[in-house]
Structure formats: C-alpha cells, structure tokens
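Internal tracking record. Fields below are filled automatically when a chain is submitted to the structure queue. Please do not edit lines marked as system-generated. If the sequence contains nonstandard residues, flag them in the REMARKS field before resubmitting.
Queue: standard
Priority: normal
Entity type: single polypeptide chain
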Amino acid sequence: MAVNPADFDFISKIVREQSAIVLEKGKEYLVESRLMPLVHQEKLESLENLVKQIKMKPRGTLKDAVIEAMTTNETSFYRDIHPFETLKKEIFPELIEKRKTQKELNIWCGASSSGQEPYSLIMLLKNSFPQLNTWKTNFSASALSNQMLNRCKSGIYSQLEINRGLPAPLMVKYFERIGTEWQVKEELRKMIQFRIINLSENWPMMGTLDLIMMRNVLIYFDVEMKKNILGRIRKILRPDGYLFLGAAETTLNLDDNFERMPFKQSGCYRLKQG
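SYSTEM-GENERATED OUTPUT FOLLOWS
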C-alpha cells in the first residue's frame, strides 16, 4: 500500500520538526516499511488513517510512536567490524598509554539506537583491556526517545539480534538467558549511563571526551545540521581524542578542522594537529 504524497509530506514534516532528520522525496518506501507495522498494531486500515489519527490528536502517543519508528536505525552487535578492530588494535592502546597517569577515559556513543553499539564497546573494553578495571571509565550513551532509552537500559535482546554479530564466547561471558531472550549482565549495564539527547537540540554538559561514536546518524541530517553537530563535537573532543563516523559519512566539505585517519574502512577522525 503506497503512501500518498500528502501523507508523506506530513510524516516528513513532523519527523523533521521533532528530530531534524530529513526524509527526502524517494524515501516513501522507508515510511511505508517503518510505519505499516504500527498501522497493524493500532488496528488501523491504512497509513492514511494513521495520519488522520495524528492530526486529530497532535500531542498523542501515536505521534511519538511514529517518530520512534522513523528515527530508530538498523543496528547490530559489532556492526561493520573494521571500526572495532581499529579501536582494539590502535585507538584504545594509544589512549590507555596517554591517560596512564590520570587513569580516566571519557566515552560517548551519540546514537545508540537499541544499545548494541555501546554494549559492543563495553565488552571490547572489558575483554581486551582488563587493566581498565582500576580506571575511572565515564561511558555515556544517548537515544532519542524514552522507549529506546528503556530498551537500551534493559539490555534485553532476541535470539535473532544475538545471532547478528555477537561472538558466541562473548554471549556466554556477558549475557544471561531470560526466557527466550538474552540480557546483558548487570555488571555491564551499570557501566553505561544512558540518557536522552536529541542531537539537533541543546546537549547536556559532558566535559571533554576521549572518544565519540557518531556512526550512521549524520547521513539523516541536512548539510547545515551536519555542520552544526560537527562544530559541537569539535568543542567537546579532546585535542588527541577520536571521532568515529559511519562508512558512508565524512567531515569533508563540512568541517575542515578534522582529518581522517588511515585505518582501513574505520571512519576514524581526529582534530587536525598544530
């Protein structure tokens, strides 16, 4: 059931107002695939009826559910393995050496989706760098909505989600069986501070950061918002810290203060030196 132009424009408008994410013409298929499950869940006849319901109750939970569905990105444990290999072999060893006096690391995952990326990172740290057990590791991760925040905090994943990218030894070591699902052990869940942050709005105080993960989210914003976000990242990233973007993302022609690092397919950047 194709979405009609008027309904597409309406959905695009409310998504952009709430999240600054841009749905361009040609993305009708995305609206349809993301919202039809909601149509069925609400026992409505069509996307057109969904839009009518939102217009009747513009401050209702249905509008929030639409924003949720349209802004939650596809993810998996250790998605695109190259960045995690770079973190393990290059970035974390360097940062640990540089911070060995302070014994403190500050990390932010800026687009956590349903939580697989921050949990992948925390497992990498625990498994590969046991010396950090005596360090102060400030690890924050952000989501756009309460629903996704609660999902991240719970750390509960289906067998299908577990099968996508999570090595079996890590599942055995860091997860517990909960019925037909799996839950990240409390020890790891307590290590991450999850919070709601809308990247297009004001950010809370975070101090200066050693590592920022902002993968596969800039692609959804227009050029001005990309520049805005990169400008704010520049202010909170330490001079010798690192930024990771998605494989299809770049700072090129957006912010000349960053340089891409020569690590294979990792999307790793730092502030230009000197």
